[in-house]
Amino acid sequence: MSANITPIAEALRDLADGLPTVKSAFWPAPRQMSALPGVVVEVPSGTRTLPDERESQLFADDWDMDFPVTIYVDLADPVAAQLRIAEVVDELVAGVDANPSLNGTALEARVTSWERPAILEPQGSGRALMFVATVVSVLKLV
């Protein structure tokens, strides 16, 4: 278990799991969604302050991480799928804005971007899904 990444990912998963319209939230990514709409928190990309740059606070190292948080909905009804994705994005933004420290695991977190929805075609007997990738940017002091 990562001492820095895992606690933040778990806090994001728990936050997503508590959103009113989300039925399932995962960290790490599952093989299948058990219930939709579903949210998956993925391994982040990250940067640290360069050696010749100042940290944001004395005696701490800045970790800037971008967590992909992907929202999946059933595509059985394309109009309803788009409306549901918009609803979950709104809820995710509001949820992170209301808890920017992610229960004390980070100095600050913010949903910084989201993409246009895309379609994931079914394989075998699976169902078609619509998804949107969001990014939750996090500053953690280590």
What would you note in describing this structure?
With 142 residues, this protein is an alpha+beta fold. It has one domain: STM4215-like. Helix content is 24%, strand content 33%. Strands 1, 2, 3, 4, 5, 6 and 7 form a seven-stranded mixed β-sheet that branches. A hairpin with an 8-residue loop joins strand 6 and strand 7. The two termini are 16 Å apart. The model has no long low-confidence stretch (mean pLDDT 93).
Task: Describe what is shown at a glance.
The chain is 24% helix and 33% strand. The protein has 142 residues and is an alpha+beta fold.
**Assigned CATH class:** Alpha Beta
Task: Give the uncertain stretches in residue-range form.
Answer: none
Mean pLDDT: 93
CATH fold annotation = STM4215-like
> Shape, please?
elongated
> What is the radius of gyration computed over CA atoms, rounded to a whole number of angstroms?
16 Å
- H/E element order: HEEEEHEEE
State the major sheet: 7 strands, mixed
Give the total of beta strands: 7
Helical proportion, percent range: 10-25%
How many domains make up the coordinates? 1
Helical stretch tally:
2
User: What's the end-to-end separation, in Å?
Assistant: 16 Å
Gross CATH architecture: 2-Layer Sandwich
List keywords for this structure.
142 residues; alpha+beta; STM4215-like; 7-stranded mixed β-sheet; 2 helices; elongated
